[in-house]
Amino acid sequence: MDRIYDGTVLIIEDEQVFRLIYRGVLENAGFEVIEAGDGATGWAMIKEKKPDLVLLDLILPELSGYDVLRKVREDEQTKNIPVIIFSVMGADKDVQKALDLGANFYKIKGANSPSDILEQIDQLIGKSK
Amino acid sequence: MGEQQKAKLMLVDDEVIITNQLEEFLNSMGYEVVAVASSGEEAVQLAKSHRPDLILMDIMMPGKDRMDGITAAGEIRKECDIPVIFITAYGGEKIIDRAKNVDPYGFVVKPFQEHELKATIEFALYRMKLERQLRESEQKYRFVIDTATEAILTIDGQSNIAFCNQAVEDLFGYPNEEIAGKPFSFIVPERLRLDFENEINRFILTGESEIIGKTIESFGWHKNGSEFPMEYTLTTWEIKEDVFFTIIARDITERKRIEQMKSDFVSLVSHQLKTPIAAVMGCIDNMLAGLTGDLTDKQLEYLHAMEEINQRNYRIISDLLNISRIERGIISVEIAEVNLGEMLQDAAKPFEQNAIDRDLELIVDIPENPIFVSADHDKYIEALSNIIHNALKFTDKGSIHISTQTQNGSAIVQVKDTGSGIMKQNIQKLFTKDQIFTGAPSSKGGCGLGLYIAKEFMKLMEGDITVSSKFNQGSTFCFSLPLGEKSKKK
In the CATH scheme, what is the code of domain B336-488? Predict the structure, then answer.
């Protein structure tokens, strides 16, 4: 696949195997990938590194995905960073809650191929080249 | 009165000559005189201690205690419930009016013929026997009703509570005397009262009702202001011209709690199972996308096999989750105007490869002029794909043909296969979740919940799904949905 993107994506996800999968897709597309294994570390990294995009799981230790999302949207310096939720939970109320809190997209893990996420990334930050 | 047991009588008169004569006469008639009193007060005392079956009472007894026969009779009625026949020389209107109030079983005016007195006593004893039988029969029913753990209420034609059993107090917190006469809707929370009343009134006016004779889940309202899950059955009956209703209600808090636990458990387990499946799927997808380097044909074949198994697992778990959501009533639909042809293509696309691999024809007839329907896009696709998936699963040769037509404001989609068909006795159960519990797992894989979910989704969108099938000759599934505004105008 052509390396058509640049920029940094932060993956906040406690399951190592999902970090591996999305790192694979994102690096292949040209992104620099950084990772956090829990919500609190993730939020600290968002403030410090100001990534171009955040991939955020919902069920996380320390700070849940909903809490991280709320903090991102409440902080002047981070409120415009695009956030894509990816979770195994797919009930209407879970999706609605995340969208209400300001998530840009909601992907259900397992329902789509991981590389499908690039379509949403295109819509959010566009191709660089 | 039969020989087996003599009726026990008590005589009350202040004239000893009269009581002696009467006693003699009564004994000769076969009655037993168990007590004789000469004043009102003495009569009350002896009635209490001797418990006769019937009392013959003089009214005018100007003795020391001034209690006349009527007052004494009233007292005895109240305390011992023993009936009285008045024997008096004074039959004036005032006396008769007063006497009526204590409900005498007879009124004999002196002087009287002996056979007159005998007939009066016999009638009184007969009436007592009937009343005792009635009372016993009533007590029997009363006992059944009062020991029932269900609350039982009757409602009169004015929609007021006329009768309650003991369990009403346990369930709603109101003692009988507090709730009697209140409007019946008193037992449900305020927000539900109007609907409840309207339903009853509709029945009274039209004789039609959705709820008569059915068991309905609702909520009850306790005196302390708390709501609880309640199930009730409403029945109706008539006496002469009057309509009555009976409500039998029970608390279903515990049942609801267990249902909720079951559902939460399914939801929790499903999510736990989904995570590893999604992870394996992600790995396979990345390998197939070439992220791990070039793959040999053999490696590709193995990966595709893994992918298929994994997708099947994912589908089963999604089905379980959907069922648990339907059961908990937390599923919602987002209705929009959607293009039917595009949806059919989207739904059929994932199955194209499978059809080609198995040498089946998968034909989708897209309508020439676009048809718009009001539907929830994702749920309609899921319902359709459940049916197409099923059709492919049960068809070994021939075709799956998807076509559309419009009819009376509805859009109909037909999915017709040339597969094994459905046996007549199984058609009724087809769209129920009983499938999963009927034992033998399907040799074709899956747990048979797809059709139930498809039907529930269609109902949520105000559509429906039906089937016609002949065993060994294939099945046709019909989806109906309301047409969208854009298609209605044409």
Answer: 3.30.565.10
Mean pLDDT confidence for A3-13: 86
* Separation between Cα atoms, residue B359 and residue B399, nearest integer Å: 9
Q: Is B281 on the interface with A (CB under 8 A)?
A: yes
Q: Is residue B312 less than 8 Å (CB to CB) from chain A?
A: no
Query: Which ipTM did the prediction report?
Result: 0.82
A71 vs B: CB within 8 A = no
Our count of domains for chain A comes to 1
- Cβ contacts of B185 within 8 Å, gap of 6 or more: B159, B192, B193, B194, B196, B197
Least confident range of A47-51, A56-60, B106-110, B438-442: B438-442
Q: Give the nearest chain A residue to B321 (CA atoms).
A: A91
Q: In angstroms, what separates the C-alpha of B268 from chain A's closest C-alpha?
A: 10
- Secondary structure class of B350 (helix, strand, coil): helix
Domain annotation covers residue A28: yes
Query: How far away is chain A from the Cα of B348, in angstroms, using its nearest Cα?
Result: 16
Domain B148-251, CATH number (from 3.30.450.20, 3.90.1150.10, 3.40.50.720, 3.30.70.590): 3.30.450.20
User: Residue A33 sits in which domain range?
Assistant: 8-58
What mean pLDDT do residues B379-395 have? 88
Name the pairing type of β-strands A32-36 and A8-12: parallel
Mean pLDDT value of segment B312-329: 80
Nearest chain A residue to B285 by CA distance is: A113
Could you give the C-alpha distances from B432 to B66, B194, B449, B453, in angstroms and in order?
Answer: 81, 33, 8, 9
- The rounded mean pLDDT for chain B is 85
The distance of B293 to chain A (nearest Cα, Å) reads: 11
Q: Which CATH architecture has domain B8-144?
A: 3-Layer(aba) Sandwich (3.40)
Would you say residue B2 has pLDDT above 60? Answer: no
Spell out which residues of chain B touch residue A17, defining contact as CB-CB under 8 Å: 279, 282-283
CATH number at residue A22: 3.40.50.2300
The answer to whether the Cβ–Cβ distance between B271 and A88 falls below 8 Å is yes
Residue B484: both structure tokens together: 């969208």
User: What's the pLDDT band for B441 if we cut at 50, 70, 90?
Assistant: very low
pLDDT tens digits for B352-368? 888 888 899 888 888 88
